[in-house]
Amino acid sequence: MSLHPRNSQLPYPARRLALKACVSSGALLYGFGFSASAWAQQPLAISTAINRAGRLRALSQRTVKAYAQLVLGVEPEQSQDVLTTAQRIVKTYLNELGRAGFSAETAGLLAVCQADADRLAGLVAGAPAASRLSEANKAADQMLASAERLTAAIESRTKGSARIVNIAGRQRMLSQRMAKSFMLAEAGVDAEAMRKQLDTARSEFVLALDSLEAAPVSTPAIKQGLAQVRLQWVVYDIGLNAREKLVARRNVATTSERILEVMDNLTGLYETALRELLGTVSYNEIRFAGLYPAS
């Protein structure tokens, strides 16, 4: 097995150690449902794969949130940036996961998610139209469901040890689902159902945040990240409850992006902690910038 180019420059004893890490990590990922050939071509830590697949859930809801904001005229320039960025990141993550060498069953789930993402992209393309909001929402929820199945399939290979990454990652989706439901209700799209969906997502977010705070997997950075999420949740909750429509729409648009950012950072901390716990090594890992539009 060849080493990553960086490791080829190491002294001989260190090269042996790096090679041993490669072999061990490759065997571990193979046991998680990644093929040996794919490991040689495009290594991907299991926690990273869960994180990437989990982000697709949030991006499905974020896409429709941004589209609804454009229909409502809420911060149109920022909303267009959010929509464009979300669609670009969906493509990036699907391409990356497509190179991960999943088992046939998991690859099939990825293909379904790809098809759902393509359908959603088609519905939000072009000038925003209120007439497409309902259909776009249905497509987003289809993508959410397929991304959920994909994430669960990858997580199942870890026998529960990666659940913390999934829980943290799902909070990103809930942050966007609340905002999406709020904006659709404001636009008059299934208003009663959207308010119920918002209340459900709100309850799930709070319960999961409590669960993360009580979890044994922790570091000083994770504790600090959880404190930031808790603070942002207070601000976000106030925005969701605001009575003046224009102010509420603007506050939800901005605070939903902020809580997504801090929740994504926290999920990354859990991903790193889990990778160290499992002993996996991810060489040549690509870190993607641009999850959020420039402010």
Structural account:
It is a multi-pass membrane protein. Residues 158-237 form the NarX-like N-terminal domain. InterPro entries: NarX-like_N (IPR029095). The protein is mostly helical and 295 residues long. The protein has one domain (31-278). It contains ten helices and no strands. The longest helix has 34 residues, at 245-278. The termini are far apart. Residues 1-42 and 279-295 have low confidence and may be disordered.
Give the helix/strand layout.
Layout: H1 12-31, H2 36-41, H3 46-72, H4 76-98, H5 104-123, H6 133-156, H7 163-186, H8 191-214, H9 220-241, H10 245-278
Primary descriptors:
globular; mainly alpha; 295 residues; disordered C terminus
Describe the structure concisely.
Keywords: Membrane, Transmembrane, Transmembrane helix. Residues 158-237 form the NarX-like N-terminal domain. With 295 residues, the chain is mainly α.
Q: Specify the helix fraction band.
A: over 70%
How many structural domains in the coordinates? Answer: 1
Mean pLDDT metric: 81
Largest sheet: none
What class do helices, strands and sheet pairing give?
mainly alpha
Low-confidence stretches: 1-42, 279-295
Q: Could you give the count of β-strands? A: 0
In terms of DSSP E residues, the strand content is under 5%
Instruction: Write down the secondary-structure element order.
Output: HHHHHHHHHH
Label the overall shape: globular
Number of helices: 10
For the CA atoms, what is the radius of gyration? Answer: 20 Å
* Distance between the first and last residues' Cα: 44 Å
Protein name: NarX-like N-terminal domain-containing protein
Membrane topology: Multi-pass membrane protein
Domain NarX-like N-terminal: 158-237
GO cellular component, one term: membrane
